[in-house]
Write a structure and sequence with these properties.
Blueprint lengths: L1 E6 L6 H15 L3 E6 L7 H6 L4 E3 L8 H12 L5 E6 L1 H13 L5 E4 L8 H9 L6 E4 L12 E3 L23 E6 L11 H10 L5 E6 L5 H10 L6 E3 L6 H7 L2 E4 L8 H8 L4 E3 L5 H4 L13 H10 L1 H19 L1 H16 L1
Parallel strand pairs: 1-2, 1-4, 2-3, 4-5, 5-6, 6-7, 8-9, 8-11, 9-10, 11-12
Helix pairs in contact: 1-13, 6-11, 11-12
Pfam families: Glyco_transf_4, Glycos_transf_1
Protein name: Glycosyltransferase family 4 protein
InterPro entries: Glyco_trans_1, Glyco_trans_4-like_N
């Protein structure tokens, strides 16, 4: 069997990190594994290179490059037998379906990595291509939609040993409380709400805090403008893309995710592995695993109140984080997640 992961690129998102961890596991099991990036986005290419993974860029950056990319894909996979094509997200599925119909009949496994598909044409494409997909994977039963096949529920996963924090988290009221926003600076993640949250904390008399923004994205300039306009440079720091995510998680007191929509973010799972308190909006598949008993799940209107609660009663926030770790460590551990995927791959090749 040859496992082929197809994704938009090697960017810094959750899908890319899942592919990375899955490919490392299958490589350790001496299973042929190939990663195909549709575009030339190479943000975390160094991680694939360090792990000596077999990855290639198809170079499809415009409609004109589509057929050249397919031709390159055909050449790369020509020497592999029993290929299972795992397409991650919509654009990868388009490539996979075309490859299956016009190049080589291979089983397709599809992970949407989200439960929101706004564009009607995408929904119709997903609906009409159901017959060409063996199985769809999503993160919870709630993610099943009319345009998907009967889904296989497999959560995202991380290496819990890698993110293990070997010391007790502490917070002294005299030190700066560090909130961590870890993710892309784009509409889905709702980054432009951060200045408003900071102002609400200041209005309530809380001034000894810092929101660290670890990530890049197309709304970065707009966010910087809002920060400067409201004189919040002392309270919101844009760090840019971070290679050492683990250190950012270790250094923070609390993670915040004010997203408008999500699938099941890898960054939340990484935070839970370090027992970092979490404040997140209850969107996508998040409420299936992240609940009021193990983290803070406010609507965006009351998000600042949860931030204040974490500062005022950090022991309670840590208790929630410890409960989250216990609730989800078995489900989110990459070893368990990988075994479920491997079993599925084997089933579609029989």
């Amino acid at each position: 069997m040859t496992i082929v992961h197809v994704n938009v690129g090697l960017g810094g998102g959750g899908a890319e990190h899942m592919i990375l961890e899955m490919a490392k596991k299958s490589q350790q099991d001496q299973i042929e594994t190939v990663v195909l990036a549709i575009t030339d986005n190479d943000q975390i290419e160094y991680k694939f290179k360090e792990s000596q993974l077999n990855y290639h860029y198809l170079g499809i950056t415009s409609p004109k490059g589509f057929f050249n990319g397919i031709k390159k894909m055909k050449h790369i996979l020509s020497n592999y037998d029993d290929v299972v094509l795992h397409c991650h997200m919509f654009h990868a599925l388009v490539i996979g379906i075309y490859f299956r119909l016009f190049v080589k009949k291979v089983p397709i496994v599809f992970t949407l990595h989200n439960i929101l598909v706004e564009e009607i044409y995408r929904r119709w494409f997903l609906f009409f291509t159901k017959a060409f997909r063996k199985i769809d994977i999503n993160f919870s039963e709630d993610a099943s939609k009319w345009y998907l096949k009967k889904i296989q529920v497999i959560a995202n996963g991380v290496d819990f040993e890698k993110f293990k924090l070997n010391k007790e988290r502490t917070f002294n009221k005299n030190e700066t409380f560090k909130f961590l926003y870890l993710g892309r600076i784009e509409e889905q993640k709702n980054p432009l709400v951060l200045p408003d949250l900071a102002k609400k904390l200041l209005d309530k008399g809380f001034s000894n805090f810092e929101i660290r923004v670890a990530g890049n994205g197309d709304m970065k300039d707009e966010l910087e403008t809002l920060i400067n306009k409201n004189n919040l440079e002392q309270h919101i720091k844009i760090l840019g893309f971070q290679k050492d995510v683990k250190q950012q998680l270790f250094d923070a007191h609390c993670m915040i995710m004010p997203s408008l929509w999500e699938g099941l973010p890898i960054s939340l799972i990484e935070a839970s592995a370090t027992k970092l308190p979490i404040i997140t909006t209850p969107v996508g598949s998040i409420p299936k695993f992240f609940k009021p008993s193990n983290c803070f799940t406010p609507q965006i209107e009351t998000f600042h109140e949860a931030m204040i609660s974490a500062i005022e009663n950090y022991d309670n926030a840590k208790t929630k984080a410890n409960q989250l770790f216990e609730d989800n460590k078995n489900m989110f551990d990459i070893n368990s997640v990988y075994k479920k995927h491997l079993s599925l791959y084997q089933s579609v090749t029989n």
